[in-house]
Amino acid sequence: MQRHVENFNSCNYGDAKYWDARYIKEAGAFDWYQRYSSLRPFFLKFIPFSSRILMVGCGNAVLSEDMVKDGYEDIVNTDISSVAIEMMKKKYKDIPQLKYMTMDVRDMSFFQDDSFDSVVDKGTLDSLMCGTDAPLSAAQMLGEVSRLIKAGGIYILITYGDPTVRVPYLNRHGYNWKITLYIIPRPGFVKPDGSSSSSESFLEPVPITENGKLPAGFVLEDPESHYIYVCQKMGEGDPAVHL
Ligand SMILES: C[S@@+](CC[C@H](N)C(=O)[O-])C[C@H]1O[C@@H](n2cnc3c(N)ncnc32)[C@H](O)[C@@H]1O
């Protein structure tokens, strides 16, 4: 689960050639950060089974397959790596609920505005943030995500980035996203006293302060926790959202 995550400061992570080479070398399925089993409570809460879902930067993860096994009906998976996409197309050719397309998340002009109910991103914004021109790439990507989500729809971002480094990108007036934060430990995390975490406590949202920070005195159970930002796109008639 943690394969090469420790190297996430590599500046290659925004580069298609890097990912193509990596997927040729490491062809076996791999899910970054978390598997569907840990994310399932959040998905079931925020994404109805009938949603049209866009999975950006799908890589060769099993996440979408597990979602379909659970009842999700329509997942369009995209990635900048044509190697990953061709592998996945072949692997899932008999599963009509899964579609695969090579696409740069910074330019998704192939799709019309409001094409999706939900967009799921596990580790893809993180990749762009590790590439060259990171702020520009992140703004391009999130602008496209915002454009593609219907009013009332959801962008779920699963990331290692805490609110100080992610909220400034998510909290743009143009997006009008209502942001709810959850924090979950890495899979298999064991507390210093040897006990494991109780999963129920992670289902409670963690407040984000007006400055996009965690509340004063908030202590992370796992210092290398993963953050789940649930961004709901408010409609034009809804009041503007500010943190
Ligand atoms: C950290 S991996 C995560 C893969 C998968 N989502 C998972 O959870 O296992 C990041 C993925 O983003 C893809 N990626 C990087 N830059 C991209 C871009 N500009 N457009 C689309 N995908 C991109 C990479 O090819 C890679 O598959």
From TrEMBL:
Record-linked InterPro entries: Lys/N-term_MeTrsfase_sf (IPR051419), Methyltransf_11 (IPR013216), SAM-dependent_MTases_sf (IPR029063)
GO MF assignments: S-adenosylmethionine-dependent methyltransferase activity
Pfam name, any one: Methyltransf_11
Gene3D superfamilies recorded: Vaccinia Virus protein VP39
GO biological process, one term: methylation
Secreted as UniProt keyword: no
Domain Methyltransferase type: 54-156
Keywords in alphabetical order: Methyltransferase, Transferase
Keyword Iron-sulfur tagged: no
Family, per entry: Belongs to the methyltransferase superfamily.
Designated name of the protein: Methyltransferase type 11 domain-containing protein
